[in-house]
Amino acid sequence: MIKCTNLAFAFDDHLIFSEVNLTIQKGEFVYIVGETGCGKTTLMRLIYMDLAPTSGVVKIDAFSSISVKRRSLYQLRRKLGIIFQDYKLLDDRSVFDNITFALQAVGYSSRDMKMQATQALTQVGLIHRKNSPISELSGGEQQRLSIARAIAKDPIAILADEPTGNLDPATSADILTLLKKINLGGTTVLLATHNYELIRKFPARTIMIKNYKCEELDPFTL
Question: Which residues contact residue 179 at a Cβ distance below 8 angstroms, ignoring those fewer than 6 apart?
């Protein structure tokens, strides 16, 4: 599903990773943890191929960082749902239109966009808000919308970068419950976080980025 082999990345001569080896199987739920600045976001960007590794290779499904062409990246992005800490929603569009706009960008037809958006909003409990402007949504609702936008593509994997970083503990737990439910449906979830309390509450395989490498942690000892 997702495999990083001997992965290294440096930015302006600043080493971020060295010899990272990581395999995530189809249907897994995996946390990525580590100190601020350790490279959690960078690893996410390497996986969805927004960045190219300095050396080594990233493979997702049939795509490889060695051979993928930039003009083919939309095919990869269509298979992935990406969730950001700051939501990255379009303030000038409604809840519904935020999803259809994202689907249009990866080639969905008008009919399929409407169907997928409706299903995704229903799944995250926001269908009653479909015509609302973004300014009327709470932080938790905005993150639910960003999840709906991610799952509307029926992705093989969701990459969530600090999705609860701006949320209170109760809302954070709601978001994790939703992501766990999506994972139980068969979607791989890779979630970067610094919130160990959430990991203790929703334990799963945990990978720490430390000393330029990845190492497995026991979530029950955090």
Answer: 29, 147, 158, 160, 163, 189, 191
SS (H, E, C) 61-98: CCEECCCCCHHHHHHHHHHEEEECCCCCCCCCCEHHHH
The C-alpha atoms of residue 105 and residue 134 are separated, in whole angstroms, by 20
Q: How far apart (Å, rounded) are the C-alpha atoms in residues 98 and 141?
A: 13
Tell me the whole-structure pTM to 2 decimals: 0.93
Torsion of CA 195, 88, 146, 5, to 10 degrees: -60
Say which residues have a Cβ less than 8 Å from residue 168's Cβ, sequence separation at least 6: none
Burial of 18 (0-12, 13-18, 19+ CB in 10 A): middle
DSSP class per residue in 118-161: HHHHHHTT-GGGTT-BGGGS-HHHHHHHHHHHHHTT--SEEEEE
Query: Is the separation of the CB atoms in 7 and 64 below 8 Å?
Result: no
pLDDT in tens, the chain (222 residues): 899 999 999 988 889 989 899 999 999 999 999 988 889 999 999 999 999 999 999 999 999 999 988 888 888 888 999 998 889 999 999 999 999 999 998 888 999 999 999 999 999 999 999 999 999 999 999 999 999 999 999 999 999 999 998 899 999 999 999 999 999 999 999 999 999 999 999 999 999 999 888 999 988 887
